[in-house]
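Structural biology now treats backbone shape like a language. To illustrate, our science desk offers a sequence and the tokens encoding its fold:
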Amino acid sequence: MLSQSNYTAPHFTDSFIQLINFLESYGALDREMACIPSQEKIDNRIAKQKNFTRPELATLLAYSKTRLFNKLLASDLIEDDFFQELLLNYFPKVLSDKYPEYIKNHPLRKQILASYLTNDIANRMGATFCNYTLENDVGNVARLVKAHMAAVEILGVNDLYDSIDELTYVVESKILLDLQLTMHYPLDRAMTWLMKNKAGDNVQYLVNIYRPVFLRLKVKLVDCLSEQDLIDYKALVGSYVSEGVKKELAENIFSLKYCCYVFPIVQVAQEYALDLDEAIEKFFQIGKELNIFWLYQLIENISIDDVWKRKTKDLLLKTIESHHVKATKVYFSAKNRSISLNQLFPKLKNYSDLIGLAKNKPAYHLSMVNVLASKLGSLVA
């Protein structure tokens, strides 16, 4: 975990700064005592393209785990059947098979579960996951952890991590860390969506709804991608296969960012009582024709260097996804579903011209994306 945090720290510098400020504001961290640098020293490091040291990251990881553990301990997660099953799995099978009721009523059951979840989540999502938990009260933290665990199960992340671990000492460590980082964003995105839209639902219930559709989307993905996206996807997979990564593993990991659309797709399919294949195909068709997937990629590629730019980037991703869902709903609300998008959206030419203008620019920035997102919103309104 520490190696992963050290490798990925440059991607999450603003999140680490936010974590330090949170911990300080709650009286949980004394910078001088914990040997954490001042903001001035951090700024100087950033200017020199340097980052946090391993001992500093280890300290922040320990502090964040403590905060997460304490909030989980005060929650009611143990009441969810999914987490009771996790508690049973913590013990040797011979014990859980023979004494399940004793384990479920173990006097330290909450401590055991909180410890297990803290290590599992922090080791996967890193110390800055604590940012979410510090921003929320105990009840919201419990819902956040439920959303995270549901996302892990729906996306099949456990199996992917196991497959990466099998490549230790076989493939260069940098390659394995890159694969783990690649999984971080879809997992975070899935967790955020579930937290926002399905926070009160039982974990296993969510898995039962979304996991089958996720698997179906994986099967159809190659046929749904645009020609350029498919070329990029195959090239990316091929580059990791050439480094010794199994092709199936590379495909499963790099398809995650597309398969995360399972959540809005199910939302639309349920609302309009659609066949899943039809919902998947139309969602991707609209995404391609309105250049929405290009916008997603554009935002992901823009580098950020402070917390407000990160917040702007996150907000733009959510806004564009909302417009994508809205456009799909507009299509399925139409009486004539054979209608073209040009007929459905009268302002499409103006929007497409603006996209063409943006694509010819030598560099991209958040202000440009903000304008494009606004025009997309006007288009589908």
Remarks:
- Residues 1-135 form one domain.
- Residues 307-333 form the longest helix (27 residues).
